[in-house]
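Quick start: read one record
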Amino acid sequence: MALIEDVFFKGWGGIALGVVVGAVAAPAVAGATGTTLRPLAKATIKGVLAVTDSLREIVAEAREQVSDMVAEIHAERSDEGPRASAPTH
């Protein structure tokens, strides 16, 4: 699950940081144009946050399902006894 979190959440943090830095630097660089870029940057950040929240929810549900399956498999293995989990030669 750490791989999924790395791909989805750490990548979005970099994008959001880039947008924020761009929104802060744009007025200094572009002058009056910066006032038109700020609303665009805010809308972009809101969109990124919405996507991130949705992805977190999806990953949490997937993690819960996998955890349930692992617990079920452990229970099945313990019901089968030690011989079922031991490798055969």
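The chain has a mean pLDDT of 77.
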